[in-house]
Amino acid sequence: VKSTKKSYFGKRNAVESDDDYEGPLNLLTSKRPFKNPRYKSAKKNKNLKQILTMERDQVFALNIPTYENIECAPSVLPQKKYCDITGLDAKYTDPKTSLRYHNAEIYQFISTLGVPNVQAYLASRNAAVVLK
C-alpha cells in the first residue's frame, strides 16, 4: 500500500516510493491562495487638514463642538521647564543668573557668559530679571 501523502521536508517515509518523492518544499513554486495585486483597500484615516476642510464646508450649530471651536479647561499639570541654551528638559536652575540648564556641560557654558548674553537668554523666554 502506497501513501499519497508527500513529505514537505525532503524525508522519505517507508511507505513512499522513489517516483513520488519531489524533494524539499519550494515556496516559490508552490501554489498560493489567490490575491488580486490590483486590489486597494479603502483609506480609513483622514489627516487634520482634510477634517478641517470638510468642517469649513459644512454649517454646524454653535453648540456642536468641532476642531476649530473646541474649548477646554486649563491644564492642572505644572508647566514644563526647558533649558535656555539647548531646549532640552531643564533639570536645574543657575541661582546666580536664573538660567535653566540641562546638565553640567551646559552649566560650564553658562558660567562663561557675560551679563548682556544672560539678559538676552532671559529675554528670549520673557523672564524680566535685572541682574546686578
From TrEMBL:
Gene Ontology cellular component list: Ino80 complex
Domain of life: Eukaryota
Subcellular location: Nucleus
Region (Disordered): 1-22
SMART domains (alphabetical): YL1_C (SM00993)
Primary localization class, coarse: nucleus
Keywords linked to the UniProt accession: Nucleus, Transcription, Transcription regulation
GO biological process: chromatin remodeling
Stretches assigned to the Vps72/YL1 C-terminal domain: 81-110
Name listed for the protein in its UniProt record: Vps72/YL1 C-terminal domain-containing protein
Record organism: Thamnidium elegans
